[in-house]
Every structure is written in structure tokens, then in C-alpha cells.
Amino acid sequence: MAISTGFAFSCRPHFPLSQSMRKVFMSFSAAIEAIEEIDSGKEPAEWKRFNSKELGISSSMIARPTRVVLNGLKSKAELKEVCRTFSHCEIVGRRFPICHVHVDDEVVEVSSFHTSGIRPVRNLGLSFEKPVDCDEKDHFRWTNCLRRDFTINGLMFDPYSKLVYDYMGGVDDIRKAKIQTIGPASFSFVEDCARILRAIRIAARLGFRFGRETALSIKNLSSSVLKLDRGRLLMEMNYMLAYGSAEASLRLLWKFGLLDILLPIQAAYFVRHGFRRRDKRSHLLLSLFSNLDKLVAPDRPCHSSLWVTILAFHKALSDQPRDPLVVAAFSLGVHNGGDLSEALSIARRISAQHDGSFHELESRDLDLAALKEEVVELATSVQRALTNMTDEYSVSRAMANYPKAPYSDLVFIPLALYLKACKVCQCVRMGREKGFVAKQGSKIDYELLASGSLQEVRHVFARIVFDTIYPLNTGKDDT
Q: Can you tell me the distance from the alpha carbon of 303 to that of 448, in angstroms, rounded to the nearest whole number?
């Protein structure tokens, strides 16, 4: 039985930073520049066993929901036994089934040692050398580790014996800030193409590097992610964009050609503006998500409707550049629930200088009537962009002018999410909403933001847009 805790980087939104491990702080430059470190030889790593205290890990770091599951199971258990133990539990996945146990509004992932990889390792046509001095229990754990994705996710923590087992050299790779597959990357990604997206997510969130073989395999096998179901793709995209590493994620998705497949509309924008795969420059789309990253984090994510709305807003603005005051009034109108009189009044008093580097902003001398008309037009354009993002034909045509681009008509935004995102900005074109109370103050309620509270999502969206167009400071807001 394996339970995802903060120690499993790919399954949880955060992990504990130990004192003896190198602390790695995410930056997009690290994610872009140094990802092609040459892979070391394929010699089997010497397996190690650590006292958890050596790594700065304690049982107190285990979240309460995970402790509840651990205490309920105590020892190894098949997935069906897990379901019998916990009433709010379901088995998900076919090739790699796991249990989702619901505890305190959180989901704890549980995998059985026997089912964490249905396909035997030998089916990959690979041979692995058994670690020396390995007893029966060690061999059992080692065999299970062979079915995992990355060396850093092959670590096993026994909270009862307070031991960390490292059969794959995961601790060394953490210290090197390196993402390396267990076994050849090409085999690993063919076995489970979702690992490609997990690799991007980890690299973006932690600032880790890829080895050359891993990077090449990600690029060569990028189109295989189309085999994943839409729900899984949405989950992976949400992990990338809602937890504080959206800008770095978009840069890596673009670098490896995955953006062309997952978000063709946004990829077309990168191409139109001459953005190279290794480009270190920024633009409005990246700046919007950079400002989102300043407000959210692994332990305080946003609802997916926020980043979907940001994508649609940017698409609308890139299709039709607007006066900065139009954008300001629009964001204020979103915040206050559609009171355009108030929004226009405040916007017309703005004296701050807008960011003149964005092509999507064109200053014009607009009277009040024209300003109001363009604000409503922008809201209509955002609605249209949302619709196009969920229309397979529109998505398929996004990269039509670029013959070398891969074909993709992928739509992973479900109807419920589309409708929720529509509500964020529709008040601007439909008029003031009866009974809506605008958010007061600047403090973000992260519980409400994660749950998709309309008031909270509108507040944060307006703040991101306004801070991007009129950058007042560069410090990270700790709210």
C-alpha cells in the first residue's frame, strides 16, 4: 500500500522542504535555461535507507487526512479493502488504478503495492539489477518502485519506523534539482504518457531540470498526451496553472511543443508575436499568469474558472487591442458585479501610467459614451473567446496558418466549467447583478477562492488584470 503525502511530489500540490535537502526556489529562468543537463550513466543507484530526521522529515508533516487513512489501514491492503474501510472512497484509473479516499473535503490517493502498475515491469523489455544486501521486504519495495515515474517519486516513508527508503537515487536527484525517469525516459513515457505532464508540472513548480534524454523524450512523445481522457488533462492543467507556477508551466509547455496540442489558441499567440521556444522575454499572457502566481501557492490554489477566464480575457484583448482605461473599467465592472457607472467613474480618474510594452493596449481619446461601449464590447469578446475555447472546430483552426504545427482540436474544458467561467464577466454586458455584493478590502479568502466563489474569483481576476495593466509594485503579495 502506498499513500500520497507531501513527500510524493507528483501527487500532491506541495512537499515538505527538509533542512538537509537543498532548497530549490522556482524561477522561470531555471526552468527554461538549464533543462538539458546531460544524463549520467545508467548504473544502478546504490539504495539507501535514511532516518527521517536526517532529512528533516517528521510524522507531524503528514496532513491530518492522510494520517486518518494511515491509521485506518495500518498495513498493506488491496484497493477493494480500502473501499470497504472508508465509506467515501472510489477506485479511479484502469491501467494504474488508485483509490481516492475523501477525508475532510480533501482527497487522499492510495495505491496498492500489487496494483500500482498493472503491467509487469518485465513487459517493458528492460532488466534492472536487484540492489545488493536486499532482503525480502526490500525486494518487495524495490520492485514496486520500478513501476513509478521519477526517481524523486520512488522514495518511501514509513511513518511508524521513521525510515525513508531510497532505492532509485531520489534523494541525490532532489539535491541536484533533477527530474529523471526510472528506466529509460522513452519507455517510461510510452508506458504512461501522463508522466510527461507530471514532469512539466514538477519542473515548473520546483525549478528542477530535466536530463537530456528526458527532455528529448518529452519533445518527441508530446503528442501522445492526446490519448489521455479530457478529465485527466483538465486535472493536470489545473495543477500547472492554479498552484503558483502558471508562468513557468506555460513557458515549458511552449518550449516542448505541448502548448500547441493542449492550448492551440494560446500557442498561436506565441507564434504571432515571434516568441521562440527558448525565449526569455515576456508578453501580456505570461504577465497575467505571473501576477496570478503572486497570489496563489501550492497550499492556497485558485478555482479553475479563474485561469480559464484569464485565458479568454487575454484572447479577447489580443484579437482586438483596447485603450488601457477600457481594460481598467472592465476589470472594475467585473469586481463590482456590473455597476458600470461606478467602474467608469473610477477608471476616468486613473492617473497611473499603464505598461506600454503590451501590444494589446492602444491609447485613444474616448469620451464617456465610447468608453462604456468598448467596455461592453470587451465583455462580449471575452464571452466569444470562451465559446471558441470550447469549440473543437475553432480550436482546430487556431494553428491552421502554421503548417509545421501539429493538428489538435482538443477541448478539455467541460460544460460546467465553461458556464462557471462565463459568469465571471457576464455582469459587465448584462448590467448590475441584483443582490451581488462586491468584495471589500484586499485580503483574499483562499477557501472561497478554491471553491470557486463568484465574489472571490471576480475580486482576484480584477486584481490580476489591473495590476498587470497598471503595475504598481513588483513585490510578491503575501496577503
A: 9
pLDDT of residue 91: 86
Answer for the pair 214, 151: CB distance below 8 angstroms, yes or no: no
d(CA 29, CA 279): 10
Q: Where are the domains of the chain?
A: 2-25+42-178, 248-469
pLDDT at res. 39 = 53
State the cell numbers at 426.
Answer: 457576464
DSSP state letters, 176-193? TTEE-BSS-HHHHHHH-T
pLDDT tens per residue across span 124-143: 555 566 666 777 788 888 88
Q: What's the first-to-final CA gap in the chain, in angstroms?
A: 39
The confidence band for 58, taking pLDDT boundaries of 50, 70 and 90, is confident
The H-assigned helical ranges of 356-453 are 368-389, 392-397, 415-430, 446-451
Shortest CA distance to 412 belongs to which of 390, 383, 444? 390
Euclidean distance between CA atoms 97 and 151, whole angstroms? 20
Answer yes or no: CATH 3.30.460 is held by domain 2-25+42-178.
Answer: yes
CA distance 264 to 258: 9
